[in-house]
Amino acid sequence: MTQSILASQPQASAQSSDSTRDATAFVPVRSPVEFNDSPVARALEQPLLLGLFLPIQAGGWSASTLPRTTDWNFDYNLALVQKAESLGFDLVFALSQWLPKGGYGGVFNGQALDSFMSLAAMTARTERIILVATSHVLYGPWHPLHFAKFSATLDHISKGRWGINVVTGHRAVEHEMFGWQRIEHDRRYELAGEFLDAVQQLWSQPENFSFVPELSSWKLDKAFVTPKPQYGRPLLVNATGSDAGIDFAARYSDVVFITSPAGSEIEAALAALPAHTARVKATAAKYGRKVRTLINPMVICRETEAEALAYRDAIVAHGDEGSFHRFDSDAHAWRGNAEQRNQAAARAVGGNISIVGAPQQIAEYIVRLHHAGIDGVQLSFFDFQPDLEFFGARVLPLLREAGLRL
To answer: Compositional bias (Low complexity) spans (predicted)?
Structure first.
């Protein structure tokens, strides 16, 4: 595997010439975190990063048919981003989804905007918030030269507010749509490492750059990208929990999007997260790097705890069984044992973890997540538009009082 330039100097088979920089002479790449005036560095001045996980896919994040405004279309999501920006949120995420006709079934019917394209459009309609698009870097459309050029262009349009959540894909159906067999898990990270090594050199090299990877089929021959990103490179994020994924994130990413090792129940998650976040950060420290951790809570909040619990119960009561069996090959989750029913209820609610309660309780959960080693929250809601409004009015002031937001 070609090692990250952040960890060691990789060896490559390209030859140098008067117009081509030898691929072994890698130029160091600076993170936007290192530039005090970058949007990323300014966001990291906050004690806790605050983000929104956009519902650019049908069904949002909740497998429930309870009526709601949540919609995958561009105008709805742009309005969410602009509202989040007005509330002082630091960043927004969107997923990348490649599914055959019908998607997962039920409310997850496969309708979805492309993450890269939709957030790219939003760079011209926002002013301060950081936009992080998810990109499967191994799938057919991407060549490192395309990726580097498009991302550098968006970095300029956004004035340094562009980021990429780098993913390698894991569902067999996604690989098959591009005409491949599913790639073995750890090898995907090796291929992604070669890809990002090349991309980062295209962002940093002052001369033409040639590179022949050891594992991948693409090549670079006297390649050059202009403009260069304004702050070293765009923000890099990785969503992972595996050994290979954590090692990859430790070498390349600024932010690591983690999940709870103990599932969605908040108390179990809070017990498991300190060791998990410490492991992620310790792995980065081995490479002389610092990473921040980000997690995705589903927020169900009302004026009183009783109202919030009733809202949660209504979401679960309308659980969409048609969306479940495509995930777990179990069409009878609602009629199964207690564990299966709990899993089905968690999918109806959505989010990697769920926090339910009155505003003060939600704020306290977020404070506890921060104490467990979480550096940022990427929030989801069931009914995004009104729930985001309520969060901004009733919970955000409490986070400021708690010292988590400036």
So the answer is: 1-18
Domain that holds residue 56: 37-402
CATH number, domain at 230? 3.20.20.30
pLDDT digits (tens, 9 = 90+) for 296-325: 999 999 999 999 999 999 999 999 987 755
Classify residue 30: in a domain, yes or no: no
Residue 4 has pLDDT above 50, yes or no: no
Bridge-based pairing of strands 209-211 and 162-167 is: unpaired
DSSP tag of 244: H
Q: How many domains does the chain have?
A: 1
Q: What CA–CA distance (Å, rounded) separates 173 from 58?
A: 18
**Contact 225/152 with Cβ under 8 angstroms?**
yes
8 A C-beta contact, residue 45 and residue 400: no
- What pLDDT, on the 0 to 100 scale, is given for residue 25? 72
> What is the tens place of the pLDDT at every residue in 12-66?
333 333 334 444 578 999 999 999 999 999 999 999 999 999 999 999 999 999 9
406/403 Cα distance (integer angstroms): 7
Instruction: Report if residue 9 sits inside a domain.
Output: no
In a domain, 76, yes or no: yes
Supply φ then ψ for residue 91, to 5 degrees.
-155, 160
| Cα separation, 254 vs 380, whole angstroms | 22
Predicted TM-score (pTM) of the model is 0.91
Cβ-based neighbours of 4, under 8 Å, separated by 6 or more: 10, 193, 196, 197, 251, 252, 287
CA angle 221, 224, 225 (to 5 degrees): 140
Helical H runs in 287-378? 305-317, 325-328, 338-349, 359-371
